[in-house]
Amino acid sequence: MQRLSNPEIILALDVDTLEEAKHFVDLLYPKIKLFKIGSQLFTACGPEVVKMVGDKGGKVFLDLKFHDIPNTVYYSIGTGSTICIAPHQVNIGREIKDDIVFPVFMMTVHIKGGRAMLDAAAKGAAEKAKELGIEKPFIVGVTRLTSEKDNVDTLKEVLQAAQLAKDSGLDGVVCSALEAEEVRKVYGEHFIIVTPGIRPDKAVTDDQKRTATVKEAVKAGSNFLVIGRPILKAPDPLLQTEELLGDLYGAGN
Ligand code: C5P
């Protein structure tokens, strides 16, 4: 199992082309070492964009939010974990593990997919990692989208989803910073919490409804803060990143 370090920022590469993605990776690596590739970019570029991040030295959070029958999710998670391995390398598995890059360190599934699907996701990741002698990527479950409005049951629903994730052997959950504190309290320090919906200035929320600042998310116990538009659309993305990293490093003080 991989170890958790201090809270880290993940840049959501929500762009349409390999060139745009490469522009942001070249500009921000190594200040940012973790990059989220979601459905927008992966649909456009596929594994090539994962390889681009890996070649640079970055790690990929492959956020494809699988929600399908257990068999499909089992194999999709297995493929995702080893996405940059050429077919001939898969055949010789363990022997070449030190020579190849495995950039995907985390993937997502929708907890709404249910127990059998979540079990399949955890099993798919564990079995593929064992087969190839590689580190198992973290599998985290999406509780509720941060674009969904809060209601009186939100916290209860997120905690129930987190319980299902835990029971199924997932490594953690994606939830808003507003529920993170309670999730951390109930599930302890080894349960991964990923929080999107981070905004430097809470007035600018785009389509996100349940937002928080970097400091609030860290205080609530988040391990990974996913940030997209506040950096991608900033007049000076490098300066904006430095400011957000300043908030991150200063958050414990
Ligand atoms: O641009 P912004 O910072 O809002 O981007 C947030 C990112 O986090 C998007 O890529 C979105 O797909 C993702 N995400 C989310 N809410 C979740 C899970 C993932 O906003 N519950």
Q: What ligands are attached or bound here? A: cytidine-5'-monophosphate
Beta-strand portion reads 15-25%
Structural class: alpha/beta
Q: Tell me, what is the CATH class?
A: Alpha Beta
**Main sheet: strand order:** 1-2-3-4-5-6-7-8
CATH architecture: Alpha-Beta Barrel
Ranges where pLDDT stays below 50 over 5 or more residues in a row are 87-99
Largest sheet descriptor: 8 strands, parallel, barrel
CATH evolutionary superfamily: Aldolase class I
Q: Termini distance?
A: 29 Å
So what's the overall shape? globular
Number of helices: 11
**Helicity range:** 40-55%
Query: N-to-C SSE series?
Result: EHEHHEHHEHEHEHEHEHH
CATH topology: TIM Barrel
How many individual β-strands?
Answer: 8
